[in-house]
Design brief:
mainly alpha; 2 domains; 6 helices
């Protein structure tokens, strides 16, 4: 065998190795992306669980605010802190979905509107604060979308089929 033939075989082996390496890296990148999405979902689920525990720990306050009873300044402050924790959670999820290029960021606004509709005290806080805090930008979009859902019956019939619902928003 001459040196040219050995060189040609070496070049073929190098090309096959490069292709195998590229394929391996593509698989690894896909795996990392899947793990990242899974970790985000787990973080979101943990956050939601913590918020539910917060609601349960302050259930008397939430019931009192839903009954539209007078709240002391301390109770108003506690209710405000619980509301802000929920708002930040849903807003963060809204932004995260948008940053990931998902077309379902509306789900966070819809879920936030459902949360507000179930808790009158929080709904009042939202109505008071939506215009005064953080005008413009992503929060304004989130608040406007949540507000539009809040003014609907929140069923999937009001969500466009292109977004996974049953009708028009």
């Amino acid at each position: 065998m001459n040196w040219e033939a050995i060189g040609a075989v070496g070049e073929i082996l190098a090309a096959v190795t490069v292709i195998a390496t590229i394929f391996y890296l593509a698989v690894q990148v896909r795996h990392v992306q899947t793990e990242t999405v899974s970790a985000r979902m787990a973080r979101r689920t943990d956050g939601r669980r913590e918020l539910n525990i917060l609601l349960l720990d302050h259930s008397e306050l939430v019931v009192k605010s839903n009954a539209e009873e007078n709240l002391s300044n301390v109770e108003l402050f506690e209710l405000s802190q619980i509301y802000e924790s929920h708002e930040q959670h849903y807003f963060h999820s809204y932004n995260e979905a948008d940053q990931m290029g998902l077309s379902n960021s509306w789900v966070s606004a819809w879920l936030f509107a459902r949360f507000l509709k179930a808790n009158l005290g929080f709904c009042k806080l939202f109505q008071e604060r939506k215009t005064e805090s953080r005008p413009g930008g992503r929060y304004a979009e989130f608040a406007a979308e949540a507000d539009s859902f809040l003014n609907s019956d929140l069923s999937f019939d009001h969500i466009p089929t292109s977004l996974g619902g049953n009708g028009e928003k």
